[in-house]
Amino acid sequence: MKERKGIVLFTTILLIMALLSIVMVFLNSTKKVKDTLSYEYAQIQSNIIMYNLVEYFNGIKFDEEVIFYGAGVPFTMEFGDALVNLEFNSAHDKLNINAFSETIKTKDNTTYNNFITYLYSYRVKDPDLFVDLLLDTIDVDNLEKNSGNGSEIALKEPLFRNGKIYNKEHFKYIIDYYIQQTDDKDILKVPFENFISFNSPDIDINFASKELLDIIFYDANNFILETISKHTDIYYKLDDLPFDHYYLENIKKGRFGQSITTTTNILDVKVELNFNGKFNSNIRFFYDIKNKKLTQYKVKNIDIY
């Protein structure tokens, strides 16, 4: 009898444990559904607010003065229940890596030699291989630039995309591959993030950093570059730059595959959005001033409270 009671008690305990497990699974599933709905709700609200923000942008006349004095300055505004903090900059303040790579693929010009020298200045051990990695990425074939040097990533990584360098993640993959091939981590010391982009091949001189100016105008007077890089005055046309006539005519032809301008057509916009204390989202997009269009819209992260 005692044995039967013991078996019944043991069975009852097992049944209770099984029921508890089911309840826990149900509760966890419910929580996941709730979290998913909250995240989707935050995404929808973020998109609605961003639509209104772009409509607001469409009503602003973004000339060079507005961009020059407004760039880098945080703005705060309200859109219904949302508090929006935004900051914009010119998207023409860096070197387009694809346009640049096109100019050095023959390896018999000053641009190539100066870039190699620049990489050596950071003690990069095999700058030629790094350049070959760039060149083998922007072309569409699977032939190595220098046979046997391992510069055609697609031969070892079939899913690797050739044709151009698409974004910073793609570029980072190339850097990581270079380190894997050479064990040279000095490449990480090169501040690519300060002067490399994947957007327009136009550089607005009003926003170029001193480092970028040093790379592109390697043969210019350093005092002049220092003056330009302070960005205390707007240059409305290239002839306003403090270079001599011969040098101005030279840079009007372009440098490093870039067109040197004094105009910004695309804004790089960063937005932090707080919706009524319920969630916070960080968004980044590019705004085409001429066509009044938003591109490369990306919600970087959403924090739900």
Detailed description of the structure:
There is one protein chain. Helix content is 45%, strand content 18%. It is an alpha/beta fold and 305 residues long. The model is unreliable at 1-37 (pLDDT under 50). The chain has helices spanning 2-58, 64-70, 97-103, 110-121, 127-138, 153-156, 168-182, 210-216, 222-229, 245-251, and strands spanning 75-79, 82-90, 95-96, 196-197, 202-204, 259-261, 266-275, 279-288, 293-304.
**Broad shape:** globular
- Characterize the largest beta sheet: strand count, sense, and whether it forms a barrel: 5 strands, antiparallel
Q: How would you spell out the order of helices and strands?
A: HHEEEHHHHHEEHHHEEEE
Helix percent reads: 40-55%
Let me know the number of strands.
9
Give the helix tally.
10
Q: Which regions are unreliable across 5 or more consecutive residues at pLDDT < 50?
A: 1-37
Q: In total, how many domains does the architecture comprise? A: 2
**Alpha carbon gap, first and last residue:** 56 Å
- Oligomerization status of the protein chains: single chain
Mean pLDDT score: 84
Helix vs. strand class: alpha/beta
> Radius of gyration over alpha carbons?
27 Å
Strand order in the sheet with the most strands: 1-2-7-8-9
Q: What fraction of the residues are assigned to beta strands by DSSP? A: 15-25%
